[in-house]
Amino acid sequence: MSTVIQSTAQVDPTARVGDGSAVWELAQIREEAVLGRGCVVGRGAYVGPGVRIGDNVKLQNYALVYEPAELGDGVFVGPAAVLTNDYYPRAVDPAGRLKRGGDWQPVAVRVAEGASLGARSVCVAPVSVGRWALVAAGAVVTRDVPDFALVAGVPARRIGWVGRAGVRLVERQGEPGVWECPETGALHDEKEGELTERP
């Protein structure tokens, strides 16, 4: 598979873009960033210095992924979604001096395998989004999201469960704590606020 980088994209020479990936117009990939195989970086998307991105990840148009974020394989980041990196953001220090790179400590957003972040959602670092979780469009994530959780709102709260297909799971009648995917038939078990897939 060939890699496609549009002429208007800015990819730092020290960044690594995996085979079969596509970087579209006006996207920027900063120094030491690593993208896996088969990724898509949409128009105007931003990938900060040293960000680590797995295989088959989609960053939709104008998604902003600030360092030191880490994205697992198969992650989806919707249009204009933001992964922040400063828990106490300020332009200046208490004395009024402009803050520079060494004047603050970046913190990470970590998004695990298969998870999706909806359009214009915001993940406020430090926070982790679990495997195959789904963050609704416009949600603001301020605490960790469990595997397979469907979260929505400001701040984001769990409103259900989703499976690998992204479809909301349904609790099986007469079997409390057993959740089924209407699309694939896959079963999941809920215990103490966590969901696990059955083999």
Q: Helix coverage percent of residues?
A: under 10%
Largest sheet: 9 strands, mixed
**Computed Rg:** 18 Å
Number of domains: 2
Helix and strand sequence:
EEEEEEEEEEEEEEEEEEEEEEEEEE
Residue share in β-strands: 25-35%
Strand order of the largest sheet: 1-4-7-10-13-16-19-21-22
- Just name the CATH architecture of the largest domain: 3 Solenoid
CA-CA gap between termini = 33 Å
Inertia-based shape? globular
| SS summary, helix count | 0
Average pLDDT, rounded to a whole number, is: 97
Spans of at least 5 consecutive residues with low confidence:
none
Return the CATH topology of the largest domain.
Answer: UDP N-Acetylglucosamine Acyltransferase, domain 1
Content-based structural category: mainly beta
What is the assembly state of the chains in this entry?
Answer: single chain
CATH superfamily membership of the largest domain: Hexapeptide repeat proteins
Instruction: Please report the first level of CATH classification, the CATH class of the largest domain.
Output: Mainly Beta
Account of the 3D structure:
Helices cover 0% and strands 33% of the residues. It contains no helices and 26 strands. The strands form 4 sheets. It has a 9-stranded mixed β-sheet, with no helix packed on it. Strands 2-5-8-11-14-17-20 form a 7-stranded parallel β-sheet, with no helix packed on it. A 6-stranded parallel β-sheet has the order 3-6-9-12-15-18, with no helix packed on it. It has 2 domains: 4-162, 3 Solenoid (UDP N-Acetylglucosamine Acyltransferase, domain 1); 165-199, no CATH class.
